[in-house]
Input
Amino acid sequence: MPPLFEEIDSQHSPLGQISLRKRRMPAFGDRDIYEVKLGDEFLMSSMFVEAEEALSTLGLAAVQGDTLSVVVGGLGLGYTAVAALKDERISELLVVDAIETVIGWHRNEQVPLGKILNADQRNRYVLGSFFDLATDPDQGFDPDSAGKLFDAILLDIDHSPTEFLNSANASFYTTDNLALMAQQLKPGGVFAMWSQNLPEAPFEALLKTVFQSVDSHVVSFYNPFQGGESTNSVYVCVKA
Output
């Protein structure tokens, strides 16, 4: 019988000790559940992926045209990136993550979706701080093409626009820095962002200082730990 719990890897990162774990929960279908922890904090679980996938589907649904170039900020367990690659219009996907260990888990296929991402030639991992690259439009997200413009930028790093994985990220959520990121979008391009909370009116107002339109979507999913429904949000913004 497979073990009910296994720590697959644990490494030091710039944000602290990060670990990848796998557990089986017979009460929830006896399937493998992958988890990522940063120190003592749970970052993500493969049990709840609906909102991560919705970040891609809702964001890309707002993009017009074909042959799309897309950036995903935050690799995580790979669900946002894999959902994006299901859109046949995508010609290239850059997945930006600041933690080399997380990229390594996918390259080495220690997580289930690594094999899918590695096999898709449209996918490329970029090691770097999303927030540094987002606010440097002269260089931009593509290390091989300075100043390149994209059709969509999909962001899932912080817990919400007011709860940060790293306190240094707070400075990104301003008109000036969001506008710098928007310079890397093509006209009509889309910025979409995940949040663990319901839509926040002050953040919607901030987004409207930069983008022509802002729509907030509530994503509901079943949470077996609570025996009921949980919700996350996806903000979808379109550049003029």
In short: The longest strand covers residues 185-195. The chain has a mean pLDDT of 95. The chain has two domains: 5-45, 50-238.
